[in-house]
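Record format v2
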Amino acid sequence: MKTSRVEAFSDGVLAIVITIMVLELRVPEGHELSDLLGMTGTGLLTYLLSFVYIGIYWNSHHHMFHLVERVNGGVLWANLALLFCLSLFPFTTAWVDESGFARTPVVLYGVNLLASALAYVVLQNVIIRHQGPDSALRQAVGRDRKGKASLVLDVAGILSALLIPGPAGVWLALGCFVAVVVMWVVPDPRIDRIARRPAEPA
Amino acid sequence: MKTSRVEAFSDGVLAIVITIMVLELRVPEGHELSDLLGMTGTGLLTYLLSFVYIGIYWNSHHHMFHLVERVNGGVLWANLALLFCLSLFPFTTAWVDESGFARTPVVLYGVNLLASALAYVVLQNVIIRHQGPDSALRQAVGRDRKGKASLVLDVAGILSALLIPGPAGVWLALGCFVAVVVMWVVPDPRIDRIARRPAEPA
Amino acid sequence: MKTSRVEAFSDGVLAIVITIMVLELRVPEGHELSDLLGMTGTGLLTYLLSFVYIGIYWNSHHHMFHLVERVNGGVLWANLALLFCLSLFPFTTAWVDESGFARTPVVLYGVNLLASALAYVVLQNVIIRHQGPDSALRQAVGRDRKGKASLVLDVAGILSALLIPGPAGVWLALGCFVAVVVMWVVPDPRIDRIARRPAEPA
Amino acid sequence: MKTSRVEAFSDGVLAIVITIMVLELRVPEGHELSDLLGMTGTGLLTYLLSFVYIGIYWNSHHHMFHLVERVNGGVLWANLALLFCLSLFPFTTAWVDESGFARTPVVLYGVNLLASALAYVVLQNVIIRHQGPDSALRQAVGRDRKGKASLVLDVAGILSALLIPGPAGVWLALGCFVAVVVMWVVPDPRIDRIARRPAEPA
């Protein structure tokens, strides 16, 4: 089977996930700037963070399927597992926001990030196995240092929120999650040089 | 008429159905793990179950239209009937979840599953009739044992929820519905062997 | 400009419109069949009616753009006007349902139907003018008796809800609206005979 | 990388943004025309305004990518930034509406318009730089007088809402925003003459 419908369906799901998060933004009850900042300020920030995360995954998915010509049942299911993990972002983002960055919701957000990153790795490996020994994707992924660094940062964030008491742990965790975003968004000169290198997000 | 827009429209509807169910997940009021498990735990499970069901249908739809080259008005309407049945999943899933797996919502969920499976069979037959005596889809479907087993399991689930008193009937019904999912998700060696065999879900 | 993105965007909007109406279906508070029928029964019927209306428009849009090869700015805007009218269906459907089929919401629903039908006619005419004297669409549309009958039925429904006192006027109006649906859904032998004849809904 | 998935993903996001705003329209509590006009009248107008804005952007995006053959990482991110700005319209539109056109929400709406227009300019420039010295887009954009006039009108609207006391400032701001819409929707004879000239919205 060709990849066109897998790409179209994934585009649809990711477009919805990235957009419905804005539905969680509650309109402030007052009409002043202070009402906006008080009620919705952190909501806008977490929305931005999750928007960029989904954007990174869409970019990477786009790059990856650029090197895929045919899919089988295993690829379809691994892709659905990734979409399932990503579809939980509106929920985990909303909980982080409504709890005012409490410990447990931040841990759950990190688990969501980690589960998505692992689902991406599984999808990548299923495709590489399907492509066989001359896999174009395997050569493009290479040692995948950025992908591995993301997994480490996700785990570090989860652990710091779990183990370090007080707000420090939560802020350190958020720092880890933002670092992953920065690592992927800041332009990587190699990417445009090796124009067809697919990227793996965290 | 070609199939591209039918596929694109179906992809769009299924992407939305599979994604908006997550909007039904209410953010827990507290900030602890117990709040998450208490309020949202079963919600996550029913979301997962319905996500996988829609995923199965998308996979099967993908396989089926792979063998279709042209559509007529009858195919368009049979396809819309299937999409209508599937679009009710967010509603029936939410009722099952909010009622805490009460008898009537579970029966309705089973009826939704059964109606979707029947709509799929109707769509399949409309396409086969449209393709004429040398229908590629008819050869691919073959005896459709998996499809028939799903219908039987759906009916068995509905009947057990209706007829067996107490929680046992409800759990037996859910067991039937999960069994259908497992039957379709667990890789079927024949599918990749007969690469173009379309699948029919329950 | 080619039509592919116009079709893709319209498919996206119609897929969303047809699907988000199910979000309006409120989960019943009780767990019995009577709760479902009492709270949600008419909701399911109005959802079905509007789903079929949007389905008719999608079918007709599909047929119409089958005969269009290039679009200009006027076509894009006429298409957006049609999508705007259709995007109001979730709102007018919900009002009809929540008011328990009160007079004014039923009139508004009819106005929504009429506005959509007129927007469709405008789009058709803009395309025909853009295609020039040998317009394939003009030949396909022919005398467009079905389209004109739909406009008459829409106006008749609006007037009967406005002018005939008591529930009779409302039910007559709903009868007109259902008659339009039946007229378009019931297979028209000419459509498959003149395979490329585009349809215009009401 | 080719542009097809960028276009498909953008179409998906814009289709959702343009459609979910209708979800913000609350169904009136009464069943009379006065209830509709009282509760939802301005909502319909702001929905229409934002619908047309998103429609303008979709049209312009459509024109612009018509002249683009390949994209790189920078184009993908500039495009995501534009989609992020546009995805905030349902939120800012709802606040304007619920506040009854209070000063701060109107300013925020103007900031949203301005940010979207700037993101569009950035995307345009990133594409032009990527296309190199013979950029087809650069030639098509030309002096981009309409784009510059839009930026001026957006800033004028924001300033008038901020600086002119009383309702006059708010209404002047809304006048500026409507003027931008009119400028872009009213057919521009040059556009169809120079058929491939891409447009830049405000």
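Chain C touches chain A through one residue (CB under 8 Å).
Residues 4-195 of chain C form one domain.
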